[in-house]
Task: inverse folding
């Protein structure tokens, strides 16, 4: 069944699965709490009432935090009341987080207390922000309003039907120039992307959600698709405890990024001598059957390795601009080397070797970035920036990238220019190139030898490493530079005097 | 503490125990990925009977920093 608004997904699921568990989460080391479909719908409507009472209507509301029940309630409460949710990466440096809150024109911020620094700074740095709502505070105070107290105070139903064409979410993604771009997605974009294809997962499957919730892949496939199938969505409280949480929640399915799959593969290979059924039972549990992989390239050998343990890996391909799924493999229809078949609401064509896609999941544009929007959307077609082709059965094959963007194995997009520009601010550096090398981000630097001589710097690699260490201290994990190369000669240049990247 | 940590490190990356030093950096020198590191922390929780918070470990780069952090948890 294809739904065209996020509200329809929730309302239909609540009618069908009412008192059954929708969300499970840990409240202590081995203690699980649960919220039913009825609880989830009631709480999200109460949060819509909260926003109305605060006068937040047809407005943008930012939210940031680890995956949690309050995060989910806030998200649905925002989008199902005609407001627009702006989910932000909880690991962003404070300055960048405030910049995005401000740039997204958010009037309220729902925030996890682990980002106390943002709570304190946002009031000064984000003049448009009228309300701060803390997910954990038990009572409202000068610092922020209490999510729990507001929910109790404004408990009630909220009967608003968003239009499929209404904007629901703005999600930020790395731009090739280094400035994050706010991808505008409507209810239709998101709801149809999550529900237009049938993966033949049984109703009431148990999912463990381990990816960051601000990612389109997690929000669409774990949460929206999961709810539409009446799944039990279990929240992994920390990547540190993922192995233990698999044993605790006993999931059937987990969405992962290739980095996680490859790490698990290494551990599986360590016990390769043991019978596969015993290994599967110990590591994943007998009930586990599927990993969905997305966000980055997955070596095809992983499919064979996990198949020996009776686990299917379904590989998908997409981008935030397409809400995000473009193609996915199904367990009964796998072509190795392909990233799956186009989903029903998506068509594709190839222009100058680049894959262009069109359909009801394609974004409305980048928020307040008309130039970038014009470059990416052409007559309703989305230029993916990926090189590839589609066979006669609709299977997608990727052959390279047109855009200069690093896609890390954990699915994060990093703009090399952003890092290069920041490093170039130092007088020590004359030229710098940032790239991915053997799974980590590497900076190759041609130092300014004249400056270095003038300043009498003797240990050049140490001075450059210090510069990189300083960058790493404040950068989110996926933007940290883990390898340094020092050049003695200038980089080769293109005719337009740009450094040759390849 | 150091010896036990080294033993666990060697389960995650292909490195000989004698090459793991206090000043070794997890990512740069030992070849950890961010997810290897998170998974290892989960094992350390059991090995040292402590509870590790994800947001407290983002600054740990070297084996020495990990030892210091673990010692502070064990002492609590």
Result:
């Amino acid at each position: 069944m294809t739904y065209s608004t996020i509200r329809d997904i929730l309302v239909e699921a609540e009618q069908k699965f009412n008192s059954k568990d929708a969300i499970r989460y840990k409240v202590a080391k081995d203690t699980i709490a649960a919220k039913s479909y009825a609880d989830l719908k009631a709480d999200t409507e109460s949060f819509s009432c909260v926003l109305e009472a605060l006068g937040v209507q047809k407005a943008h509301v930012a939210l940031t935090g680890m995956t949690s029940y309050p995060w989910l309630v806030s998200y649905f409460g925002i989008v199902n009341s005609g407001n627009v949710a702006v989910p932000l990466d909880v690991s962003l440096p404070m300055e960048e987080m405030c910049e995005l809150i401000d740039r997204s024109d958010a009037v309220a911020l729902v925030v996890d207390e682990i980002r106390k620094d943002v709570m304190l700074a946002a009031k000064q740095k984000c003049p448009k922000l009228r309300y701060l709502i803390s997910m954990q505070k038990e009572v409202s105070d000068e610092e922020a309003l209490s999510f729990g107290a507001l929910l109790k105070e404004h408990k009630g139903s909220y009967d608003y039907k968003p239009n499929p064409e209404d904007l629901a979410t703005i999600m930020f993604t790395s731009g090739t120039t280094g400035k994050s771009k706010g991808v505008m997605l409507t209810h239709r974009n998101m709801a149809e992307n999550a529900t237009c294809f049938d993966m033949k997962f049984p109703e009431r499957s148990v999912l463990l959600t381990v990816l960051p919730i601000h990612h389109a892949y997690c929000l669409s496939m774990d949460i929206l698709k999961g709810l539409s199938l009446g799944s039990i969505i279990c929240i992994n409280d920390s990547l540190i405890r993922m192995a233990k949480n698999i044993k605790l929640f006993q999931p059937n399915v987990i969405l992962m990024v290739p980095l996680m799959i490859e790490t698990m593969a290494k551990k599986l290979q360590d016990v390769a001598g043991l019978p596969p059924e015993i290994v599967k039972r110990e590591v994943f549990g007998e009930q586990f059957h599927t990993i969905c992989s997305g966000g980055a390239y997955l070596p095809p050998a992983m499919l064979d390795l996990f198949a020996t343990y009776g686990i299917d890996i379904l590989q998908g391909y997409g981008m935030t601009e397409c809400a995000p799924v473009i193609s996915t493999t199904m367990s009964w229809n796998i072509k190795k080397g392909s990233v799956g078949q186009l989903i029903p609401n998506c068509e594709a064509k190839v222009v100058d070797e680049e894959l262009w896609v069109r359909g009801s999941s394609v974004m409305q544009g980048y928020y307040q970035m008309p130039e970038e929007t014009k470059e990416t959307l052409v007559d309703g077609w989305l230029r993916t920036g990926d090189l590839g082709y589609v066979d006669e059965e609709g299977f997608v094959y990727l052959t390279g990238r047109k855009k200069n963007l690093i896609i890390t194995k954990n699915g994060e997009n990093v703009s090399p220019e952003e890092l290069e520009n920041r490093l170039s601010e130092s007088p020590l550096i004359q030229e710098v190139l940032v790239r991915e090398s053997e799974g980590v981000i590497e900076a190759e630097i041609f130092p300014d030898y004249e400056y270095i001589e003038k300043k009498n710097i003797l240990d050049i690699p140490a001075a450059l490493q210090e510069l990189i260490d300083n960058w790493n201290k404040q950068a989110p994990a996926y933007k940290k530079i883990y390898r340094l190369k020092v050049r003695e000669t200038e980089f080769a240049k293109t005719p337009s005097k740009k450094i040759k990247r390849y | 503490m150091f010896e036990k940590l080294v033993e666990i490190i060697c389960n995650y990356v292909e490195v000989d125990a004698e090459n793991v030093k206090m000043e070794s950096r997890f990512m740069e020198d030992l070849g950890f990925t961010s997810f290897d590191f998170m998974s290892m922390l989960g094992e350390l929780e059991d090995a040292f009977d402590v509870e590790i918070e994800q947001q407290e470990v983002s600054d740990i780069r070297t084996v020495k920093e990990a030892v210091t952090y673990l010692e502070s948890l064990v002492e609590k």
Q: What stands out?
A: The mean pLDDT of chain B is 90. Chain B has one domain: 2-75.
